[in-house]
Amino acid sequence: MKKLTLLPALFCLLILSATSCDTGVSSSSTSDPTTLINTVKQGTWKITNFVDSGTDETSHFTGYNFTFGASNAFSATNGTNTYPGTWQVASDDDVNNPSGLKFTIAIASPTDFADLSDGWKVSTYSSTTIYLVDTSGGGSGTDVLVFTKN
Prior knowledge:
Layout: H1 2-19, H2 34-40, E1 45-52, E2 55-56, E3 65-68, E4 73-77, E5 82-91, E6 101-106, H3 111-114, E7 118-125, E8 129-135, E9 142-149
Antiparallel strand pairs: 1-2, 1-9, 3-4, 4-5, 5-6, 6-7, 7-8, 8-9
């Protein structure tokens, strides 16, 4: 009889341990920006996905490397052209932002790059990928911006 009750208990324990594994992506349960700030300042990044109002505009950033530096300055360069901007990661108390973090980018030109200017909700991030989302004006769609470390 003890064997029959032990088997379901072991099965439940196995299921619980499998669902609580760490995936390497920061949890949505913290709103402390320090880890993401330190992560983004290390190395250079590229845009591997940018969907603006339902249109894939990733190709506009092909060949550009983004460096997020001190004093909230960043630059996008392809070796020939360099475009400066600013960035900031801060806590966000928006109840629709489960990560509790907002990644703000401001860049004036060129036009394609100005489309990045926004206060993006941090969906998930790891040491190699930052996944950002923004609800388009009026809630008509979701914009997506993904940075991947070089």
